[in-house]
Write a structure and sequence with these properties.
Elements lengths: L2 E8 L3 E8 L5 E4 L4 H11 L5 E3 L5 H4 L2 H8 L2 E5 L11 E3 L4 E4 L2 E7 L8 E5 L4 E5 L2 E2 L2 E2 L7 H12 L6 E4 L4 H11 L4 H15 L7 E2 H7 L8 H6 L7 H14 L1
Parallel strand pairs: 3-4, 4-5, 5-6, 10-13
Antiparallel strand pairs: 1-2, 2-3, 7-8, 8-9, 9-10, 11-12, 13-14
Helix pairs in contact: 4-9, 5-6
The structure holds zinc ion (ZN).
């Protein structure tokens, strides 16, 4: 495996992620929530910032771009469908486009719903996915600009990635997500196991991610909206999966 990752916190609970190609020396920041912690991570690793890969336009994912670009002259890659709402963009991408970070090759997946133009990045050789605010561990982003059906279809695309894909999301929300998920599927053993694992990680001052797509499929209620038992338990037996998803999302909004 050639890709290296550095994971750290920005702002209150945003994840900062650096993706590094040791061979070429290229390094991408996934989003830029805050310049200072990203600078500190670059200092600590000795990596040189070559690219910023933006998932969506929200300020807590983009407000560090200007400062980082000025200092490092890095390339800024952003979602085509909302690039107008992001400053300092050099290149716009959408579904199926490839993105190089040195020798690492990523593929763009359109994952709208949280925002209308949200994208995710998948690096197949290293089985790494950067999913912004679409998928969280044991949760998913709020449906702000899209609709539930759109968001469900985006989650299905991410769920379809190889089971051993490690994904990095935009926020450390996992423990709060678990508390909610336990109200939806109190008897889910995979969820109970994940709850134990995360409690230990957080107690040891470690992060709850990356998680794998395979483990997430078994424990994250938002990826399980097409499970017949789940639909029945929510009083939605026989309804389309996106409606079950919408109900779970609605309950989370009120939780
Ligand atoms: Zn967001």
């Amino acid at each position: 495996m050639t890709a290296q990752i550095d994971l750290f916190l920005c702002l209150k609970d945003n994840f900062g992620v650096l993706l590094h190609d040791a061979q070429s020396g290229a390094t991408a920041a996934i989003d830029a929530p805050e310049a200072a912690p990203i600078e500190a991570a670059l200092q600590e690793t000795g990596w040189r910032l070559s690219d910023i890969l933006v998932t969506h336009h929200h300020a807590d994912h983009t407000q560090g771009i200007g400062e980082l670009k000025q200092r490092h002259q890095c390339r800024v890659v952003a979602p085509r469908n909302e690039a107008k709402r992001i400053a300092h963009v050099d290149e716009t991408v959408g579904e199926g486009d490839s993105v190089q970070v040195g020798g690492l090759e990523g593929r763009v997946i359109d994952t709208p719903g949280h925002t209308a133009g949200h994208i995710s990045y998948f690096f197949p050789a290293d089985k790494l996915a950067f999913v912004g605010d679409t998928l969280f561990s044991i949760g998913c982003g709020r449906v702000i600009e899209g609709n539930p059906e759109m968001m469900w279809n985006s989650l299905l695309k991410l769920r379809g990635l190889p089971d051993d894909t490690r994904f990095y999301c935009g926020h450390e929300y996992t423990q709060a997500n678990i508390r909610f998920a336990e109200t939806i599927e109190p008897n889910n053993k995979s969820l109970a196991a994940r709850a134990d694992e995360v409690a230990k990680l957080i107690a040891a001052h470690k992060f709850s991610i990356p998680a794998t797509i395979g483990a997430e499929k078994a424990a994250n209620p938002f990826l399980r909206a097409d499970d017949a038992e789940m639909a029945k338990s929510l009083g939605l037996g026989g309804k389309p999966a996106w409606q079950v998803f919408a109900e779970i999302r609605e309950r989370k909004n009120r939780f």
